[in-house]
Amino acid sequence: MEKSTKSNPAITLVGLPWNHPQVPAQLREQVRAGLDALNEWMSAAGVRHTFVPIQPEHGGLDDLIKHLDDKDKELDGLVVGFGVRGNNDPSVTALLENVINLTHEKRPNAKVMFNTSPPSSVNAVARWFPLINLQAALALMPPPQPINLNQK
Q1: Rounded alpha-carbon distances, angstroms, from residue 65 to 9, 44, 71, 101, 143
Q2: C-alpha–C-alpha distance, residues 109 and 82, integer Å
Q3: What is the Cα–Cα distance from 120 to 106, expressed in whole angstroms?
């Protein structure tokens, strides 16, 4: 697969809302803060981005379908959040499959990328769009914090 030569790609990020029941309670504030800061990090890297929350319930893909169907919106790639990709719930696995298949169907040239946390979204984009200004984004990010799933 060829990497893109674009330095300011249009990227859609999809993931569970930070306060969704599938997001572990002890991680919600960390995820919320990461999503809030993601705008600054992506902008610093020169990435044009939109966040579209998805969820297995409540017509979970309706907003994404509208977004993908809007041909006036440029879309170079889609980043799938770890809350969707790393989830063990079968309904969320089905959601992931639908996201990937819808993206390939409606935007066949879009790259599909995966993150492991909100900050790693910039790294995911840089893997396929190496000309973005990754260093500018990294300079704004705090050092990685270990995640303790046993924390109450």
Answers
A1: 20, 28, 11, 11, 35
A2: 22
A3: 25
First to last CA, the chain: 43
Q: How far apart are CA 69 and CA 152, in angstroms?
A: 42
- pLDDT tens digits for range 93-139: 999 999 999 999 999 999 999 998 888 899 999 999 988 888 888 88
At 38-68, the pLDDT tens digits run: 889 999 999 999 999 998 887 789 999 999 9
Give Cα separations from 110 to 65, 79, 116 (angstroms). 14, 10, 20
- Pair 17, 4: CB distance under 8 Å: no
Q: Say how many C-beta atoms besides its own lie within 10 A of residue 60's C-beta.
A: 19
**CA 117 → CA 56, 82, 121, distances in Å?**
20, 6, 7
CB proximity list for 59: less than 8 A, separation 6 or greater: none
pLDDT band at 150 (very low <50, low <70, confident <90, very high): low
* Helix ranges restricted to H, 46-80: 62-69
Cα 80 to Cα 60, 91, 95, 138: the distances in Å are 14, 16, 11, 20
